[in-house]
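TA notes, week 10

Several of you asked for a full example with nothing omitted. So below is the full record: structure tokens for the whole chain, then the designed sequence directly under it. When grading your own attempts, check the secondary structure regions first.
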């Protein structure tokens, strides 16, 4: 009896050994990535969450062809809420984040060591994976405030965004374009949700926010209170466009926010960025996963139309050099990356 059982026992031991070995090998291939997004009331946090879900494919996930995950095998990505672009740059530099959503203007200033980064060494290791949706400059006030232009913000209590947000950087540029600066207003530094609450309570007169529309916190403010969006247009916008080429003209359509007419403003693209040290093959796989047709269907389903973007648009509006892994994917896809920002 034992002689007959020995071959079965040996095969069982070998099979268990193979399963254990395979499990250990699979475990060794797991890669955890943290993507910095933004405040929960803005556009970065939900978009970052969608991207994290699309490019992840934890061990044991159902295959893409079977209707399961179409991400990078073994990759687990978590979306981290932050104050925004400036904090995300700091997080990447300190290795507290592996990937981040960053406004193109902030990425450019960080790369050059200018603006809020002028006291630091230039962040020359920033690399882009993709340019994503345009982010509109929102300047929000109460409809009853009597403030109908940015020039009338002089002397008013204005939230310029959280201290380590991209909004704070862009708000400073826009104010300068109207002959103002942070000293010309009574500056407050709060995130979107807190700013909206302060406006409703009469604690501030206006607030800036840069992000893809519609922004949930502003939607809520428009429905709960009567608000106004201040335009960024005319000669002041012309001057800003001439000085800062990463800006573009845009219009926030009528009724994007309850009761608000179409509003002319400026926008800047959101860039998905990493450190130059990230493995080229991993970045290639992430970029490929991001633009898979199956994942684009999810993006088109879960995002408003104005926040959708494809691989062809992903190489426009990039503020820092492309990561070699991303550049390789776009070349393989037949896209003209040679004209994109280079080292």
């Amino acid at each position: 009896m034992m002689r007959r059982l020995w071959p079965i026992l040996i095969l069982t031991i070998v099979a268990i050994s193979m399963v254990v070995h395979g499990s250990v090998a699979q475990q060794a291939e797991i890669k955890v990535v943290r993507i910095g997004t933004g405040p929960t009331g803005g556009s970065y946090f939900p978009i970052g969450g969608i991207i994290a879900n699309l490019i992840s494919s934890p061990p044991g996930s159902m295959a893409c062809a079977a209707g399961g995950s179409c991400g990078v095998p073994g990759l687990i990505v978590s979306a981290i809420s932050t104050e925004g672009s400036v904090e995300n740059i700091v997080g990447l530099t300190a290795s507290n984040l592996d990937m981040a959503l960053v406004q193109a203007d902030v990425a450019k200033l960080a790369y050059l060591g200018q603006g809020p980064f002028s006291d630091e060494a230039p962040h020359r290791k920033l690399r882009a994976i993709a340019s994503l949706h345009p982010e509109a400059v929102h300047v929000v006030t109460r409809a009853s405030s009597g403030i109908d232009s940015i020039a009338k913000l002089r002397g008013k209590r204005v939230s310029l965004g959280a201290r380590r947000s991209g909004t704070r950087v862009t708000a400073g540029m826009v104010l300068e374009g109207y002959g103002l600066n942070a000293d010309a207003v009574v500056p407050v530094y709060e995130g979107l949700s807190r700013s909206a609450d302060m406006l409703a309570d009469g604690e501030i007169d206006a607030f800036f926010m840069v992000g893809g529309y519609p922004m949930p916190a502003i939607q809520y403010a428009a429905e709960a209170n009567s608000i106004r969006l201040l335009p960024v247009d005319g000669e002041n916008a012309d001057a800003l466009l001439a000085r800062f080429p990463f800006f573009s003209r845009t219009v926030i359509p009528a009724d994007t926010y309850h009761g608000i007419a179409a509003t002319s403003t400026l926008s800047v693209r959101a860039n998905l960025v990493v450190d130059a040290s990230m493995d080229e093959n991993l970045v290639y796989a992430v970029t490929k996963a991001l633009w898979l047709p199956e994942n684009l269907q999810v993006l088109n389903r879960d995002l408003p139309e104005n926040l959708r973007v494809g691989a062809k648009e992903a190489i426009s509006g990039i503020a820092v050099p492309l990561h070699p892994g991303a550049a390789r994917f776009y070349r393989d896809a037949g896209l003209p990356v040679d004209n994109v920002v280079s080292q």
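The radius of gyration is 24 Å. Use that as a sanity check on your answer.
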